[in-house]
Amino acid sequence: MPLARLRRFSLVVLAFLIIYCVPIQADDATATFPLKDIKPGMKGEVYTIFQGDTIEKVDLVVIGILENALGPKQDVILVQLLGEKAEHSGVVAGMSGSPVYFDGKLAGALSLKLGVFTKEAIGGVTPIENMLSVNDAPVLPAAGARAATSDTGELGYAARVPLPASFAAQSGAGAGAGEFLVPIETPLIATGVYPDTMAQFSKQLAGWGMSMMAGGTAAASPDDARLKPGDMVGVELMRGDLTITPGCTVTTVEENGKVLACGHPIFSFGSVSMPMARAHVVMTLNSAMASTKIISTGGTIGTLTQDRVTAIGGQLGPEPPMIPMTVSLVTPTEKREFHFEVIESPQLTPTLVALATYNGIVGSTAYGEGYTLQLDGDIQIKDHTAVRLNDLFAPSDMPVATGFFVAGSVQGDFARIYANPYEFPHVSGIHIRVTAVPERRSATIENAWIEKNELVAGETVAVKVQLRPYRGASFIQEIPVTIPAQAARGNLQLVISDAETVNRTTESAAASSQGQLSGLEELIKLMNRDRENNRLYATLLQPTATLLVEDKIMPNAPTSEISVMDHRQNSGAVRVSNQSVAGEWSVEMHQVISGERTLPITVR
User: Fold this and answer.
1) Is 5 part of any domain?
2) Please, which residues have CB within 8 angstroms of residue 166's CB and are 6 or more apart in sequence?
3) Are the C-beta atoms of 125 and 61 separated by less than 8 Å?
4) Helix (H, G, I), strand (E, B) or coil at 539
5) How far apart are CA 79 and CA 132, in angstroms?
6) Distances in Å between the alpha carbon of 163 and those of 70, 78, 130, 215, 576?
7) Most CB atoms closer than 10 Å: which of 15, 216, 494, 532?
8) Within this chain, do residues 44 and 159 fall inside the same structural domain, yes or no?
């Protein structure tokens, strides 16, 4: 090739690189295109990935500006994507955050799409001015980086943005759902999660705007942190033997390592501290209803610090700590153990832990429906007593897997811990062991009686309880009950029941739920006193007042003591019940007990 011609060719190549590569370079002073200069009919481009790590350019044209669409001074740029891929795929789940440029200057991020079944690839763009303000939002200090807050300091993200009739006609949108812009779905990529688990928990996660789907993981690479606009990034909610990672597209990467992505929130939690990972597009799955990117996650590259109305923001570098979690499933033929790490989030951790527990149960080939499940374990909390997890769960006639009851119990305990009004609980470890017994161990209380109803203090009586097991003959279980010396004289009630009835009767749950304790440690003590499903209980109740003072239960409280408590400044931590527990007895049954019977007795 002649030298002159070679030079001309080199200049053409250089011009090509300048035109097509400059917009997607990381730059601490990225040139931006102001919203005020954007007019209908302007041509621009959006950069995104359809497969692998190759960032592609898609042409677009501006339809108009939707003023205050997301709230005061929160405008949206309405655009139409052009070209063969846009016509084929439409606006794809996972495109959120794809940078939009006019004249080589960053104007914002693609963040919304037009309804479902829409023939035209219509999208909404979050202006870059609104996204950049995320970097100025306060970041939680290290000591409280995982504080229980969902206050974003901004308006909540709109679920639907109505499209003006003039724009609807111009964009070819039909009537009904097509007249609304909705947030582009955030793919929630799950690996190591069984289809049954997805079916059980997808509705809970869908409440956060997440669409759970199977994905994969990729080996970590030194290049993972070399992000540029248009790349994919994920937020690690859980990792290990299973991973759960929502993913979207990077909008900007500054030289100081600050990253903006999505163009809308993931959860709207405000200040957060979650691991940020590199993500890769395996393929784009095209659908007439909702096309989506199938994503795999790579190495951890930093920390997500902001989850705001107009973008998510993070910092490349060190990752935040996660909670180590172990789930063991023991069956008659095998033991399987799974190891995870999970984020600490008051809103998400209870669901994620329940999901991991359920996934561990159904993951054994030796497990099947009809098994009774014994739950054992603990929740380690920094500077506090561990929360004990002990209970028995039997199959029921409802179309719900037994493992789901176990998972729900664990989820409920976490919800109680995080909902406490005293302090943020820093969970340091989770250990769960589930033992599966291949039979249905359950029994219902049919009847109960004693030989005589008039007793004296100190006397012992055998309470006979008739129970009917699942598909078995009724049998009699005795509970020896000794009337306490301090029991009130007169008419009392002897309640024969399951654990739930006793927990409800003692009102410990009511005391903890109303914030009437002195702190988290007292709540944990109450939780650890909860009765177990596999025991049969006899509770003697008398018509005298009980004082519930923090985590302490004070039966037979005299009127004078109640009056003193009422006048104390901290009487908000005191609750009065019109019944007292004179005594409680139980026997272990090795099966789940349900039901209750009340026996009237007279103490002379």
Assistant:
1) no
2) none
3) no
4) strand
5) 21
6) 12, 9, 20, 34, 56
7) 494
8) yes
The DSSP symbol for 573 reads G
Beta-carbon-side half-sphere exposure of residue 541 (alpha carbons within 13 Å):
20
pLDDT tens for residues 382-435? Answer: 999 999 999 999 998 887 888 999 999 999 999 999 999 999 999 999 999 999
CATH code where residue 386 lies: 3.10.20
Q: How far is CA 285 from CA 10, 193, 199, 288, in A?
A: 38, 20, 20, 10
* Domain stops at, among 409, 437, 465: 437
What's the pLDDT score for residue 523? 92
Reduce the secondary structure of 417-475 to three states and give it as a string. Answer: HHCCCCCCCCEEEEEEEEEEECCCCEEEEEEEECCCCEECCCCEEEEEEEEEECCCCCE
What count of other Cβ atoms lies within 10 Å of the Cβ of residue 510?
Answer: 14
Helix (H, G, I), strand (E, B) or coil at 289: coil
Same domain, 50 and 155: yes
Spatial contact of 553 and 581, defined as CB atoms under 8 Å apart: yes
Domain that holds residue 510: 442-603
Q: pTM of the prediction?
A: 0.81
Where residue 144 falls among pLDDT bands split at 50, 70, 90?
very low
* d(C-alpha 345, C-alpha 354), whole Å: 14
From 379, 406, 437, the end of a domain falls on: 437
Strand partners, 215: none
In a domain, 21, yes or no: no
Q: What is the rounded CA–CA span in Å between residue 230 and residue 264?
A: 15
pLDDT at position 558, please?
55
Neighbouring residues of 525: CB distance < 8 A, sequence distance ≥ 6: 385, 551
Condensed to tens digits (0 to 9), the pLDDT of residues 558-568 reads 545 545 445 45
Q: Report residue 593: phi and psi, to 5°.
A: -100, 140
pLDDT, tens only, 198-208: 888 888 877 77
Residue 467 and residue 525 in one domain: yes
pLDDT, average across residues 221-243: 93
pLDDT of residue 551: 44
Instruction: Mark whether 244 and 289 lie in a shared domain.
Output: yes
Query: Does residue 287 sit in the same domain as residue 196?
Result: yes
Q: Is residue 19 part of a domain?
A: no
